[in-house]
TrEMBL record:
Region (Disordered): 1-70
Comp. bias regions, Basic and acidic residues: 1-11, 36-62
Protein name: Uncharacterized protein
Domain of life, source organism: Bacteria
Upper taxonomic lineage: Bacteria, Pseudomonadati, Bacteroidota, Bacteroidia, Bacteroidales
Length: 70
């Protein structure tokens, strides 16, 4: 790496910059992370799933509800 031209030196710097994101998770663990897309979706999907299970018995009728509860 001694006899690098200015262009080669710049290219090697870009290569180092490309490898840097691997170091990021350690750094971001200190501050609260922004939720990913799937986390944002499931945050709103989970309560719906809970209410759907709760309303299943009422929608299927009393016989079905008693069978599910036992």
């Amino acid at each position: 790496m001694k006899n690098l031209s200015a262009h080669d030196e710049k290219a090697s710097n870009q290569n180092l910059r490309a490898q840097r994101p691997m170091l990021r998770p350690k750094k971001s663990s200190q501050k609260p992370m922004k939720p990913t897309k799937t986390e944002r979706i499931t945050k709103y999907r989970r309560p719906e799933m809970r209410t759907k299970q709760a309303t299943d018995g009422a929608r299927d009728g009393p016989a079905e509800a008693s069978r599910l509860s036992t």
